[in-house]
Specification:
Length: 455
């Protein structure tokens, strides 16, 4: 047993072996995501998007009309998130599943590159990021498997994290190269990243300002493109929050949700403890461990911790704060904790045996949660196929009011990472508040879809 342990450790000393293991874990994770995405049926808003995008003579005119309507009446995300929906409408189910799976993996890799900085490749870090997201993001399935959730929460993360990576890597490498083209490109990415999602886009100028301050603190020249990126992100955020649709939506939703600011603050603080509390404790522990050896890591960790706080508490201004919005907060706290912990537990400070044990345990936990998610999603997929067959048969028989059973899982789930968890499906009756019954009926071209229980 001792010889086997030594041989395993020797293998892991090899850089190529670490890369091979990272690729293997990436492929396994991607395969899991693709399987779940292929099995996930349309849910809730997915039916609405499919209907509204069809009200033009073609996909281009339909998309443009819907974007203009949404920007005026519903949301400032019209020119970004809703453009992704238009893009999805051009793809088949397999292509959409590939895009969704790739978006999650790219998000993880961006977080990995942000945390790693100039250090060597680390499979433990890659696995740890995945573990953090799967454990701490509430209702993760709504962010990475539900198509509407991917459009509104996962895809907007890519330009946001990409912008943060540019500043983090430039600061770490002490690169201050300038040029007119770079200024324009970074400014453009700034506009895009600032015009995504309310609680993620606001973190971009926060992180940029923090890095500009860090450059000045160490007496380094602030690159011109850093300022152009800041200007672009602020302009993009103004376009996002100043949309007439935001005010229309706020007026409608405050009719149902009207909470005092102190209560909202208390709720968000409770959410912080529940979802980001462990990561905060890990972050503080990492600061204590490296307070003398790596003050630079502490400063950069604080940048991302501050951005996480802003992403959480800015939701006080929103009429409602669904738990799926915590994807960005948990991601940024993962980055903050990862930056300080990576330094506190560098290879020269922690044995390979300890890292192997951590990696193995993390993979076992991830594998268990993934298996649970696949099983739950397959169960829902079978019920969806039966439901669709029932609707089409009833429609052919001339029925216009069709009853279908609501989804009901066959066994008590523990991971709760499938797309339907925490979401409304068709509900019993046809007049429920926030019911999607009308959306499903409109999608299938019938008068009404009524949910039933116990069939």
């Amino acid at each position: 047993m001792r010889k086997l342990s030594k041989s395993t450790i020797n293998l892991l000393k090899n850089g190529r072996m670490r890369i091979a293991l990272t690729i293997a874990v990436t492929a396994l994770m991607f395969g899991t995501l693709l399987t779940v995405n292929l099995l996930t049926p349309p849910i809730g808003d997915d039916y609405d998007y499919g209907y509204w995008l069809a009200f033009g003579d073609d996909i281009v005119s339909g998309t443009c009309r819907y974007i203009a309507y949404a920007y005026r009446m519903y949301t400032g995300r019209a020119l970004t998130a809703l453009s992704y929906v238009a893009f999805f409408s051009l793809l088949n189910k397999t292509s959409i599943a590939l895009v969704k799976s790739s978006a999650y993996m790219l998000t993880v890799w961006l977080l990995y590159l942000i945390i790693r900085g100039k250090r060597k490749n680390s499979i433990c870090l890659f696995v740890g990021i995945n573990l953090s997201l799967w454990i701490f993001v509430p209702e993760l399935g709504q962010d990475i498997f539900w198509t509407s959730g991917v459009v509104n929460y996962l895809l907007p993360m890519l330009p946001v994290l990409g912008m943060m990576l540019i500043y983090r890597r430039s600061y770490v490498s002490s690169s201050a190269s300038d040029g007119a083209l770079k200024c324009v490109l970074v400014a453009l990415l700034g506009v895009i990243s600032g015009w995504q999602l309310e609680n993620s886009s606001i973190t971009v100028p926060v992180v940029i300002l923090a890095y500009i301050c860090l450059w000045k603190l160490k007496g380094a020249k602030v690159p011109k493109w850093a300022w152009s990126g800041l200007a672009g992100s602020v302009f993009g955020y103004i376009l996002l929050v100043a949309a007439p649709g935001n005010f229309q939506r706020a007026d409608r939703e405050t009719q149902f949700v009207s909470l005092l600011l102190p209560f909202k603050f208390a709720v968000i603080t409770y959410y912080w403890i529940m979802f980001a509390g462990v990561l905060t404790a890990v972050f503080v522990f990492g600061i204590i461990k490296c307070r003398k050896s790596s003050p630079g890591a502490i400063r950069e960790g604080l940048v991302f911790a501050a951005a996480a706080l802003v992403s959480a508490y800015c939701m006080i201004a929103a009429p409602a704060s669904p738990e799926r919005t915590w994807f960005i907060t948990v991601s940024l706290m993962t980055a903050a904790a990862g930056i300080v912990m990576q330094d506190a537990f560098a290879p020269e400070k922690v044995s390979r045996e300890a890292r192997i044990v951590f990696c193995a345990a993390a993979l076992i936990i991830l594998g268990t949660m993934a298996a649970d998610t696949i099983l739950a999603t397959y169960d829902i997929h079978q019920q969806f196929v039966q439901r669709e067959e029932r609707i089409m048969t009833a429609k052919q028989n001339g029925e216009t009011v069709i009853s279908v059973p609501v989804y009901k899982l066959k066994y008590p789930l523990k991971a709760n990472r499938y797309a339907l968890y925490g979401l409304y499906d068709v509900e019993p009756g046809r007049d429920s508040l926030y019911s999607f019954n009308e959306s499903v009926a409109r999608y299938y071209g019938v008068e009404a879809i009524i949910g039933t229980i116990g069939e």
